[in-house]
Amino acid sequence: MLLEALRLALNTVFRNKLRSFLTVLGIVIGVASVIAMVTVGQGSTAQVQSDVASLGSNLLMLRPGEAGRGPGGSSADAPPLTLQDLTALTRDIPDIVQAAPVAAKLQSVVAGEMNHSVMVTGTDNAYFDIRGWTLAYGRPFSEGELRTGAPVCILGTTTSADLLGQGNPVGTTIRVGKISCDVIGLLAKREASTFGQDDNDTVVIPLRAMQRRILGKSDMQSISITFREGARAEDVTAQIQSLMRERRHITANMNDDFNVFDMKQISSMLTGITGVLTGLLSAVAAISLLVGGIGIMNIMLVSVTERTREIGIRMAVGATEMQVLMQFLVEAIVLSLIGGAIGILVGLGLGAVGSYALNIGFVPDYRLILASFAFSAVVGVVFGFFPARRAARLDPIEALRHQ
Amino acid sequence: MTAPMLELRHLSKIYGQDEARVFALDDVSLSVDKGEFVAVMGPSGSGKSTAMNILGCLDTPTSGQYLLYGTDVTGLDRDQRALLRRHFLGFIFQGFNLLPRTTALENVELPLIYQGVPASERRLRAAEALAKVGLEGRADHRPSELSGGQQQRVAIARAIVTRPGLILADEPTGNLDTARSREIMELLAQLNRDEGLTVLMVTHEADMAAYAHRIVTFLDGRIHSDQKNEAIHAA
Fold it and tell me: Which of A4, A310, A320 sits opposite B82 (nearest CB)?
């Protein structure tokens, strides 16, 4: 009997192709948007996690300014960090392996006809270890260069390729902002990109060169710190905090005017943001599924009215209430499952396109696909039930008389 | 003598309440034996349609009893009545009531689907029923591709495909011209004669009623007359 109902439903659905298609469009859009959004959302979450892993492990960032304002928090009122702070950190806290100053500014770099805007970082050699960089060509900064702030630079592969073409750039000279810089090294290409930015698009110069020649002041924006394997980020953070409070003369009743940021927190924070966004968009998509369900209910009600006489005939020849109910319910379920199936295909397509456009991995989740399919069926049952029951409850005499 | 095929005992059907009460049927008693061909006549509003609906288990009486094959079916619920219709009754309507966009064969198969007959047997029996009404070559035609007379034949095939004991025909010739009407009546008379089908037929036309053995006339919710058809019995 169920098989008959299924056959009948398929016949009815395919007899009215255009109407059926328009009916299921709501479900198609709903399912497609859920699948596309969640797929892209999961892809970007995975991306964030791999990005953060690429930043290096056991990495802390010390910056002036109060905590709680995120990685770009304000540091305007707080006294800047100094090289003495840097020295004190590595000297007084044994858990700290390395610490590197970071002073960065967006500069235009020029070589010949080529002009390129890039984030220039002033730091020392510890930076390379902390960030996991190795040199493909050339050498790190010398002691003298660091001390005097010599105009020398080490390029990322993207920057180098853009300005000077492929190959070894060591020995050439480029202009960074207003200063002329000798290229002394090329960083090895890194596959990862951090939060959508190409890591390989970078210029590194000695900290002092940055401070004197570009910034014109002896600030540093942050200190990157790696700590010993096995030490806990919380413990090291606490040690840094007490040392810095002392160095910056912060009394017990005052808040820190600096903050220590665990890079792993970026991961959980961004994952959280992605999760919230995915959740919100999914809620919107769920609403469109609801609307799609109402569309199905609407058309099923119209269909019941149109087919009142048919229902009467079926009842006259002996169809029970349950059989009439099943006929219309199965039809609604078939409609929404077809919508769901189309929606899944469209959603996966959109997800793949979106993932490609955002340059993140395409991670289709079979559980999500199964859930969407099941949810479509549920939509069919829920929104098909009322029209089906209305059909089943028809009075056969009235139904037969219906024109 | 066995029990009559169907029997109405003091049957009433009342619509409305209190002052607005209308007796569609007022204490009707009727008995029809197996193999009879009964014409039911009467003006509109005389109660004949109400009686046919109750006889067809589509409706229930307000009071009184309806016995089918000697069994009281008065108190049955909707689904039980559906099962009675499915197994024991065949309907023929004035407007044919075929499913549009469905072939003649599929229309005839319909009651068998609800009986749960397997598909292959269904097709066989439907084709057989179509042959009985003289539509062998029309199995794949849709109602819109058939003439009125042919459509009514399909409807008759659908009514007899389950081999019911009783056929209820509601003005089966009402939408047909005289020649077509006569063909349909010949067919019903033949099925009554050869297959032993009991036929109850509502009609307005004396010409058509003339095919029946017995003519029951309703008036104002009561049976006005119930007489043998002398013409048939004389023949």
Answer: A320
